[in-house]
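Good day; I would like, with your permission, to put a structural problem before you. A protein sequence and the structure tokens that stand for its backbone fold form the material at issue. The record follows directly beneath this note:
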Amino acid sequence: MFLGIDVGTSAVKALLIDENSATVAETDIPLSVSNPHPFWSEQNPADWWDATLRAIDALHHQNPGALAATRAIGLSGQMHGATLLGEDDMPLRPAILWNDGRAKKECDALDAALPDLGIRAGVATMPGMTAPKMIWLQKHEPELFAKVRTILLPKDYIRFCLSGDKVTEMSDAAGTLWLDEESRSWNEAAIEACGLSMDQLPKLVEGSDVTGTLRRDLADRWGMTAGVIIAGGGGDAATGGIGVGAVRHGDGFISLGTSSQIFVASDRYRPKPEELLHSFTHAIPGHWFQMAVLLNGASCLQWVARLLDESDIGALLARVEAQHNAPSDILFLPYLNGERTPHNNPYARGVFFGLGSDTNREAMVQSVLEGVAFALSDAQSRLHAAGTRCELPGVIGGGARSRYWIQLISDIMGTPLARYEGAAKGPAFGATRLARLALTQEPVEDVCKKPAIEEVIEPDPARHASYQPRFAKFRRLYAALASEFTPS
């Protein structure tokens, strides 16, 4: 058996698969996010660890014999989170997350100090990245900054709790701005520009490398044998790619999780920071990827359902689909947590435009679904400008459960999309594959196969045409409001 653990923003997911890649047991333990100030987003690392223990305990309860047969563990997680440990290896403060926007001024300072950073780091300097957060901490929490002994990413904090090893791997390190993407090594100049030293960062490995073994007390807790290995794993975008077999040049997918991404695998390093794309190392050796990153995805649907006191999202979507006969009269800017591609604006916020006294809840939800699709289409244009295309992206993540939403995205983007079997498993499944690669050292292509396609959803030409004027208005609306989002 192979165990995958995904430290997400909304939940920790644990997935147990057998050697035929069949799911044996799985569970999700919810997490909450703290927003103590405008544009701040934090989580307590202790909550990740508590949720991980509860998740694996639940697997043990579901199928103790299968869990006992675990031979390797793979890790995945939300990227960019600054998890800061002191001399006693305990967290010094809540982790600052990927969608935190407080460090915009620090991005400007970093760019001034290192003008070539975007080319070496594979992405323009953005507040959600780890590096500018550390400059912010040095400026605003200097006493705490002086106590920082180790900086870990979220999944790597869980690795430390599982095995005692302070290690990260290439695909997650890519999101710190401290990795030289082409050479796959730490960029010492970028680290020093943040007031840090190399000994504060973890060891670098590949995602399919072995980083250590499970602590004996935890193995005993879950009935496992001694020597269960832990793989390097990957950031959630890369492990999502591993899970759907996006490892060859041009393979790609759209992720509809808490955030959204359009991911395309690459055979070499192709930086395009001027297009606000992320060009990062993949979780397997000798591979890279390009990615358009949107900070808002299925979280927008969850938000509007909560706002409207709708507990059954499936039933809500069925009602929306039943009344859908044309593009919504309402436009929704889905920037609840700011945006990266194509705006790099942490201050952007969500907007409903065109509400009337006749607006009902189904119309509002339709506009939210369309708004996310418009944002994906906007991001896709940056990939096309960079010469990057993917012939048939699959759709993964929680939003992939809705065929209606995928059809809507296909219609707006004008792109055929594939529905994969088990697409909602996402990064946790990719983590199990990296665990297997670390244990068996099989060829990547033998393990990272594409899932079976349940259905190819083709865009409706008439609907695509009907959405183009709305898409143009969506872009104009953001352009008109962009300067208004900036705090005074």
